[in-house]
Amino acid sequence: xxxxILLALIFINLMQAQKFYFPQTAVTDSVxxxxxxxxxxxQVISQLQTTKNKPKNNVDLLDDLSRLxxxxxxxxxxxxxxxxxxxxxAENNMAGxxxxxYEVYSMAKLNELKNKMPFPKAFxxxxxxxxxxxxxxxxxxxxxxxxxxxxxxxxLLKTIVDKQKGKDSIGYGSALALCKTYxxxxxxxxIQPYVSQVIAAKDKENFIIETQDLKTKTGSxxxxxxxxxxxxxxxxxxxxANNIYAGPxxxxxxxxxAIYNYVGAVVNTRGKRNSNDINNPFEHESQDIYEVIDxxxxxxxxNGKIGMIGxxxxxxxxxxxxxxxxxxxxxxxxxxxxxxxxxxxxxNNVFMSYMLQWIQYVTNNKYTDEADFSNAxxxxxxxTAWYKSGRSFRSLDTISGKPNKIFxxxxxxxxxxxxxxxxxxxxxxxxxxxxxxxxxxxxYDDDQIGALYYFKQHYQYNKDADHYLVIGPYDHRAAQSFxxxxxxxxxxxxxxxxxxxxxxxxxxxxxxxxxxxxxxxKDRVNFQVMNTNTWKHVPTLDRMHTSTLKFYLKxxxxxxxxxxxxxxxxFTKQTVDFKSRDDKDLYYKISxxxxxxxxxxxxxxxxxxxxxxxxxxxxxGLLNVSINKxxxxxxxxxxxxxxNGKLSLLSTHKTRASYxxxxxxxxxxxxxxxxxxxxxxxxxxxxxxEKGSKLxxxxxxxxxxxxxxxxxxxxxxxxxxxxxxxxxxxxxxxNDSYVEIPVYKx
Length: 746
Description:
Blueprint: H1 2-10, H2 12-16, E1 19-21, H3 30-47, H4 58-71, H5 75-89, H6 100-115, H7 119-133, H8 142-145, H9 150-162, E2 169-171, H10 172-206, E3 207-215, E4 221-229, E5 236-243, H11 248-259, E6 263-268, H12 285-297, E7 302-311, H13 313-321, E8 329-335, E9 346-347, E10 350-351, H14 354-363, H15 370-373, H16 376-389, H17 396-399, H18 405-411, H19 418-421, E11 437-444, H20 448-461, E12 467-475, E13 486-487, E14 490-491, H21 500-512, E15 525-529, E16 534-538, E17 547-552, E18 571-576, E19 587-589, E20 595-597, E21 601-605, E22 613-618, E23 620-627, E24 633-641, E25 647-656, E26 675-678, E27 684-689, E28 694-701, E29 729-734, E30 738-744
Parallel strand pairs: 5-6, 5-7, 7-8, 8-11, 11-12, 12-15
Antiparallel strand pairs: 1-2, 3-4, 4-6, 9-10, 13-14, 15-16, 17-30, 18-29, 19-20, 21-28, 22-27, 22-30, 23-26, 23-29, 23-30, 24-25, 24-28
């Protein structure tokens, strides 16, 4: 304690100046580094809650504090803080696995100090003690959270340390990053030699895990992992996941099913794990999964009933599976399902730069290339280099240094053509999907458009579909795991903090074991209304709202309300110069504390609302426009400006104008003629917007490193370059254009 007080006094001036002492010799001498890093962590802790540095919410604060305490060798304090962090992160111990590596490491260090035992023995004792005290539902995650990429952690640590060369002080942000990066390397390098052994021992006690290769009729090889509880000897229903992310998640999906008293089956896609086939994501799932289900249905541990589960790509896989429905497949639970050709790799026909990063993530090796995928700086630099160069979007893979056939093939299909249609049910195919389905997604889910596309198509072509939807304030991760306390830094209502796992396996019990129907599923569409702490239940998506509010593209300050149709025609003119690549970020100031980025956007602001309203559903409407080119990609953002000036995003919409009426057939615009662009497939939300709030609408043009750039020539957008930019794009946004906002009333 005296050491801590003395340290605080010595460095108080430096702390106040947001600079901490850290000798330059620590960069080159590991002994000096290890000596000073605990003291640096203490200094950062002392400044963690200052006004300038305090994280946005208590979850992040407790997370940072627990990590810094490990670095400062306050192991007891870290374990206590971590427990508080988990409670703050999510309720009902749903986050009990978070930072498990740091906790077990701290327990091992305490064992080492107290009992004077070598670290390997101390770690094994700590692991066994923690494992035995765990909620059984957390056990499947253990192998994921206790394993880390030590090589990459070492590389990241070296990068940060090298920046300190020749310096005797370090700023607050750099010090926090250094401590957290050091912690990852220190903890995982210390426990890595023993993790596999201790996990394998526990797995042997609790599970039967078998992995084998299956040869398909086409001659391909697929690796299948089967997981059963040791005590379950009789045949059971099987829960299948089709996983392109080969690696630790295979065991996780299998064990999760086994914990819920099913047989877990996880098949890796072609080209993954033991398969030497060519890995072409999305293309062969329908055919391959049919054969996998057929094989599973005939195994002695299977009772012939099979369900499927999984999110994102795994969600897509389930829709691929019902393209050719096997009799043994009794239900699917697609979570945050990728709408292939709908919202990925293009959203409403606009390709995203992220697609190349993801392709390399799943195809670089037999597993997943975590280090490359998580290297945000690398991918930001690649996308920025492409953007600055003005080269065609098709050249992005070449700029990355690794030409990619899959990337090029996807770009060959800018419309929703047969290439995409053959991967999942298309139109009348949905009429034959006659098994129960449970879809989950979220208002902040990157694949919400895809998940809801399947839901809408299923009911459009099968009026008797047995398909339930659960949608709430969840992001891509939460809608396939559990509702956290905060989303995007904002708290969510307590009733939304549910376990998606519990919901999914209650559904499986209901369908596959004649159990009770999950209580939440009171109707086909079950949605949480944010800021009301209630769930609503309606038979169709259209019933999520009872009326609409038209927001016209006009300035209410110079005319009547934006919610009334203009009396006389007018337009707002916007000019976008595609030749310019030295963009500076522009912001629209909302209040003293909040602003919105408005590059290539124009804004329209409503008057303050005179009563509370519930916005519920997705934006629709029509944009009446005239442009001097043949095409453009439009962006829409709808925000709430709360009475206190805080900004909240409600919904977004992105589309290619030439595909806005039909995503299969391109219909170019006629220059300098008024054209209509329908607003379809925007993001759903449901939220009470308080009286006194204003609605802020941004409309504009897509032009950033994150998406294709549509220069408007009418040629294949992937082929266009800055040489095609010509004159700046001139848009007339006519004031009878409107965004139709869905409103719900009890």
